[in-house]
Amino acid sequence: MIKMLRIDERLIHGQVAVVWSKVLKISHILVANDAVMNNETQQMTMKMAVPDNIKFICRNIKDSLSILSDPRASKLEMFVVVQNFKDAREIAEKLEDQIDLINVGNYGLLPVNQHDKSQKKIAAAVQVDEDDLIDIKAIAKLKPEFKAQLTPDAQDKNFKKIYGGD
């Protein structure tokens, strides 16, 4: 079971590793990102941030889908973190019945997700361009809840309601 799929361009950091994992009561964090698979330093840094009682896994998108599709994964309490809406959409479209919540944290503030100068702010710490909005609208039509929320105690913004869901 994927308790939460989070879109966060910083991937693993304090909010994700400590705060969200504690609230979600997860047993595993899976970072699904193609670029990180080629960066051992970044993988080691993220692993050090994850609490000892949580298993850290880092895979590319293809291998992440394979792991998450395995029936044994349905018995785990998984927290999946991706860096962008495109990757989130790919995972969510293939596994929407396994995902409780899709959450957006930080996006469009770092160069990694600044593709277009016409980005607009759609939530606290979330700036997107037109390509991102296409992915957001597709995600909003899927079954899981879909909202922006930086931390569990912060106010959320319901993306499903705003961008075409229910």
TrEMBL record:
Keyword Secreted: no
PTS EIIB type-4 domain sequence ranges: 1-166
Keyword field contains Ubl conjugation: no
Superkingdom as given in the UniProt entry: Bacteria
Keywords from the named record: Cytoplasm, Kinase, Phosphotransferase system, Sugar transport, Transferase, Transport
Locations listed in the record: Cytoplasm
PROSITE patterns: PTS_EIIB_TYPE_4
CC annotations in GO: cytoplasm
Record-linked Pfam families: PTSIIB_sorb
A GO term, aspect molecular function: protein-N(PI)-phosphohistidine-sugar phosphotransferase activity
GO biological process: phosphoenolpyruvate-dependent sugar phosphotransferase system
Identification of the protein by name: PTS sorbose transporter subunit IIB
Organism, scientific name: Xylocopilactobacillus apis
